[in-house]
Specification:
The chain is α/β, with parallel strands linked by helices. The protein is built from eleven helices and seven strands. The radius of gyration is 19 Å and the shape is globular.
């Protein structure tokens, strides 16, 4: 695919000899948590990916895939956000035509991995909402084909490109090999809901940067006790709105301020 050729070109231009040596001697996956050798690789790839999606994807390029076959590239979601997505899905599910249009307008980007599994890199909340609503299939946009890679090399490639988020529901790093294999294994992270609710209320803007809501979730996680979020979500939301406008958040993606 064209995007794969771009990725390989980016890697060839970006990695120096020393970095290539590091690439070959990376530690085993069970102790390897962070996106690896060169941050510029992930940044350049994400830029290429954003540009490729600026224009509407031809529907002829999309494929229908059973929801149960989609594999997550993260461990946690906000269940309030999933419920809101599910409500939208089920309203449209009353009309087959409306549901079809709704899904075609929201294709799920995925990377084809080992065993020709579809590893989704966005729309995890929508995907889980579709599963819970018993929708059988979704439209998928395959943005890269890494199915030829062995599993360990595939996970390394995905992490290097910033396409995995191997952190648990408490924001703690885990081995990429521990990522859930199915959507139903996704865990609830109340701070993802907090970040989602703050963005919906205008506390910060979409910046287009990868995993921006995860960054905001971790920002709130460090400042608002988990017990508070669980006990009184509305209070936590108001507190988070104030934090999002504060000078503490000035370096956060999509920061708006007061």
């Amino acid at each position: 695919m064209d995007i794969l050729n771009q990725i390989l070109t980016i890697k060839a231009k970006t990695l120096s000899g020393v970095q290539l040596a590091l690439w070959e001697v990376m530690p085993p996956l069970d102790v390897w948590f962070e996106p690896s050798s060169d941050l510029r690789i992930a940044q350049n790839f994400q830029l290429q990916l954003q540009r490729s999606h600026l224009h509407a994807r031809s529907k002829s390029k999309l494929i229908q895939v059973p929801i149960e076959d989609l594999r997550p590239t993260q461990m946690a979601v906000g269940m309030r956000a999933v419920a809101a997505k599910r409500e939208k899905v089920e309203r449209r599910a009353r009309s087959r035509r409306k549901l079809k249009c709704f899904l075609e307008e929201r294709p799920i980007p995925a990377v084809l991995g080992p065993g020709e599994d579809f590893f989704i890199i966005d729309h995890h909340h929508l995907s889980l909402a579709l599963l819970k609503s018993e929708v059988e299939e979704a439209w998928v946009d395959v943005i890269a084909d890494f199915s030829h890679l062995p599993r360990k090399r595939f996970l390394r490639q995905m992490t290097t490109l910033g396409l995995l988020h191997p952190y648990d529901a408490h924001g703690q790093p885990v081995s990429p090999s521990k990522l859930p294999e199915t959507l139903k294994e996704l865990r609830a992270d109340p701070y993802r809901d907090l970040a989602w609710s703050v963005r919906k209320a205008g506390g910060f803007a979409k910046s287009g940067k990868p995993y921006e809501e995860f960054r905001w979730a971790d920002f709130f996680r460090a400042r608002i006790p988990r017990a508070t979020v669980r006990r009184d979500f509305e209070y936590a939301h108001r507190h988070a709105m104030r934090l999002s406008a504060s000078r503490e958040a000035v370096r956060m993606p999509g920061y708006i301020g007061q």
